Amino acid sequence: MSAEMLRMNPDEPEADLVRYVASSLESGMVVAMPTDTFYGLAVDPVNLRAVEQIYELKTRAKHKPLSLLIANLSQGYELARDIDTAFDRLAEKFWPGPLTIIVKAGSRLPLRVTAHTGNVALRVPEAPIARAVVEKLGLPITATSANLAGHPECTHARCVREQLGDRIPLIVDGGPTARTVPTTIVDLSGGGNSWMILREGAIPTHEIALALQ
């Protein structure tokens, strides 16, 4: 099997192509597409067989939860629980953008997606393609980087094809990604407005601290 390459306008995604990608996800496919940092592997997170494929493709540790891309803040509220003001402040300042926020997962998400941690990592990406697909699907999509374990993350579709072209059915080519550094990850799952930086990426720690003062 060789992946289908689907060229899409990165700034104004074509509606018919967005529909095609959304229907592919609905049917249980794994689809690679650009985010605002790296290319990611998208599946419908409620389809546990599709989620399992992500772990198999990436040889990803089973205890690591998958991060999810959402279209807007209200979708975040639907997927999380026990949200406090720290979440609101960070989302208001940095979304859409390269900030991943870990919160307690709501009951709508299967435990498998949270790797049985009960937590979920959420992000509203700046990338129009990813947001358009999420809006059309009506569900969040997974966003783990589209690369093999031990290989570099991909900033263009050709890199994804070289690493995963014989393992996944569809790669959305939206041109090069806007950044070459990963998202910053902030963990708010401790509650009580406590926070912890798990990875400093595109957004420096001091900017997070300023937003939460």
From TrEMBL:
This is L-threonylcarbamoyladenylate synthase. Gene3D superfamilies: DHBP synthase. NCBIfam families: L-threonylcarbamoyladenylate synthase. Keywords: ATP-binding, Cytoplasm, Nucleotide-binding, Nucleotidyltransferase, Transferase, tRNA processing. GO terms for biological process: regulation of translational fidelity; tRNA processing. It comes from the Bacteria. It is an enzyme of class 2 (transferase). One of its GO terms (cellular component) is cytoplasm. It is found in: Cytoplasm. It comes from Terriglobus roseus.
